[in-house]
Amino acid sequence: MDNPNWNQKIMIPVYIPTFNEKIKVSVWHQDGDYVSSDVYIGSLPERPNAFDELNIAKLHSKEGRMEPTWFNLYGIRPKELQSGMSRLHSSAWLGRVLMSIHLNMNDKPILVQG
């Protein structure tokens, strides 16, 4: 992909109460240079816990907002993964993601079917 699309707005419905208040975002790379078209890069946060910014309860305590925050991605490079290198022996900075979150209450949700 020569010109990736940035500044994407994603709306995800969350029904309260939730079974798990942790938010986890997986980042994938899509490129024809690799054996498969989708290559897993990493997760935000890497290991979710109650103290993360990506937590519904914590977001509620901050008036439902997380200001723009950079998240670094670390892991094994996709080409090294294909060569059979162990995840234990390779760690590299794979990039970063800028993300903000706004929780909005909706008394009348609309079901969108696609």
**Can you give the helix content as a percent range?**
under 10%
Radius of gyration: 17 Å
Mean pLDDT across every amino acid position: 75
Spatial strand order of the main sheet: 1-2
Outline the fold blueprint.
Blueprint: E1 25-30, E2 38-44, H1 56-61, E3 65-75, H2 78-82, E4 92-102
Antiparallel strand pairs: 1-2, 3-4
Would you kindly provide a written description of the structure presented here, covering whatever features stand out?
The structure is a single chain. With 114 residues, the chain is mainly β. It has a domain at 25-102. Helix content is 10%, strand content 31%. It contains two helices and four strands; from the N terminus they run E-E-H-E-H-E. It has helices at 56-61, 78-82; strands spanning 25-30, 38-44, 65-75, 92-102. The strands form two sheets. A two-stranded antiparallel sheet has the order 1-2. The chain is globular, with a radius of gyration of 17 Å. The model has no long low-confidence stretch (mean pLDDT 75).
